[in-house]
Write a structure and sequence with these properties.
Blueprint: E1 6-11, E2 14-19, H1 24-28, H2 42-75, H3 94-123, E3 132-139, E4 142-147, E5 152-155, E6 157-161, E7 171-177, E8 182-184, E9 193-195, E10 201-205, E11 211-216, E12 229-235, H4 237-248, H5 258-266, H6 269-272, E13 296-297, E14 302-303, H7 306-314, H8 316-319, H9 332-342
Parallel strand pairs: 3-7, 6-12
Antiparallel strand pairs: 1-2, 3-4, 4-5, 7-10, 8-9, 11-12, 13-14
The structure holds dinuclear copper ion.
Length: 346
């Protein structure tokens, strides 16, 4: 197994882990880092505004307190020739005590109000009738994205249309978990929302510019929590329509890879994966109907190439130690045939 090198970026409160090999470091280098200070969606804007305000208030307090402290330490330090007597002792001062009680109470009250306003704006937003509905299911360790109104299911890469403020089309996400608690977090689009077993949480995003936005599971969920990455691909409207059309199509049936398809259908792959149009109808793992339309593999841990697919099937733990996908122990020829089949699933 090749040593996996993690480059961890601590940027603006965001940790985005990149794999040094498996091709992801280079693939992600063209995507802007996931910073909460570069919002492109209303909930993220609201949170950013609040964060700047709180930072400004706390910075002002820090500067005033440390300034006064520094001034006192220097101005009233012990000097040669001091007679050693105590300074005048003052017991109780109503104005001073009132000031140091009232001012902090006022500051805390203002912080409570602005925080409540932000929470209200984000959580009380009504779902417009034309909003896109997505059901997000957290799994150990990948993301399932279902579009119930469109009949589309995909994994790890959430596709949504751009939401122009003139013609908004936000995506409302219903978050659920298939196993343990996970956290949905795409810093440039929205704050964190947890995915809790037996509970449905809701959040929404209205990305105002096209592009790719990186995200990360933000709730510890087991061995591969750090590699439960996701990305949101925001399309211009026409491109979005095309994406939906392609995703709704059944899986490609290329007769030249019939042997590989037979390998797929005759092994336990089918009990965990769906390929629409075949007998594969398992729901435990990602839907593979349009596997090759995804840029990444194993929840953002590897670039989705034939070589990485082969490695992933031969030894799932090579890319993600602890992965719940079992190794099928296929013979070399079967493995090659299987990969040849999978790469036709565009
Ligand atoms: Cu899923 Cu951490």
């Amino acid at each position: 197994m090749k040593p996996t090198v993690f480059r961890v970026y601590f940027l603006a409160g965001t940790v985005q882990a990149f794999a040094g090999d498996w091709g992801m470091g280079q693939a992600n280098s063209r995507i802007p880092p996931a910073s909460i200070f570069r919002p492109v969606s209303t909930p993220a804007h609201e949170i950013n505004t609040l964060a700047i305000f709180v930072l400004a208030v706390t910075t002002a307090i820090f500067v005033i307190v440390s300034g006064l402290l520094t001034y006192s330490v220097i101005r009233f330090r012990s000097r040669r020739g001091d007679d050693g007597s105590e300074p005048p002792q003052i017991y109780g001062s109503a104005p001073v005590e009132f000031a140091w009680t009232a001012v902090p109470v006022l500051i805390v009250f203002v912080l409570i109000l602005v925080t409540a306003r932000t929470i209200y704006t984000v959580q009380a937003a009504r779902r417009p009738p034309h909003a896109l509905a997505v059901r997000v299911v957290g799994h150990q360790w990948w993301w399932e994205f279902q579009y119930p109104e469109l009949g589309v299911v995909t994994a790890n890469e959430l596709h949504v249309p751009v939401s122009d403020p003139q013609d908004p089309m936000p995506a409302f996400l219903e978050l659920e978990s298939a196993d343990v608690a996970h956290g949905f977090w795409v810093p440039r689009l929205a704050g964190k929302t947890d995915l809790i077993p037996n509970k449905t949480n809701v959040t929404w995003i209205d990305p105002q510019e096209p592009g790719i936005f990186l995200g990360q599971c933000a709730e510890f969920c087991g061995t591969q929590h750090a590699f439960m990455l996701l990305r949101v691909v925001v399309h211009p409207r026409d491109e979005w329509e095309r994406w939906v059309t392609t995703q709704r199509e059944p899986a490609a049936q290329d007769p030249s890879v019939a042997t590989g398809r037979q390998v797929f259908e005759s092994t336990a792959c089918v009990s965990c994966h769906v390929v629409r149009g075949t007998g594969a109808a398992g729901r435990f793992g990602p839907d593979l109907t349009h596997l090759m339309s995804r840029e990444t593999l194993a929840a953002g841990a590897a670039l989705n190439t034939a070589q990485n697919l082969k490695t992933r099937i031969r030894d799932p733990a090579a890319i993600k130690p602890g992965a719940l996908m079992p190794a099928m122990n296929l013979g070399a020829q079967d493995l090659d045939d299987l990969v040849a089949y999978l790469v036709t699933l565009r």
